[in-house]
Amino acid sequence: MVRVPSGTQDKVSVEKEILNERWKELFLELKRYPDLVRFHYGGTIDIYDQVPNLNGKDGYPLYFPVEQSVLDNNNLIEQTEGYQ
Q: At what angle do helices 32-41 and 11-25 cross, to 10 degrees?
């Protein structure tokens, strides 16, 4: 017997459910922020609404800056956008 899932099955709803399930399963493994960034750039969520510290800071850099020593040692590497 095949079990038919209930509820909405559009792409965004399924991805949000996956994100919530990963949060429950991996909450001690520090994977929440990378998941939020990934789903933000995938168009599933708006991270600036999901993370309280980012509320009202649209355009705030989501990635960490590249260390100055790394930039000094390799002139081909560029600083993360927002930290120039």
A: 170
Given a contact cutoff of 8 angstroms between Cβ atoms, the answer to whether 75 and 81 are in contact is no
Residues 62-79 pLDDT 10s: 888 999 999 999 999 999
Q: How many domains does the chain have?
A: 1
Note the pTM of the prediction, 2 decimals: 0.72
- 46 belongs to a structural domain: yes
Cα–Cα distance measured from residue 58 to residue 53, given in angstroms and rounded to the nearest whole number: 11
Cβ(62)–Cβ(51) under 8 Å? no
35 inside domain: yes
Question: What number of other Cβ atoms are within 10 A of residue 25's Cβ?
Answer: 10
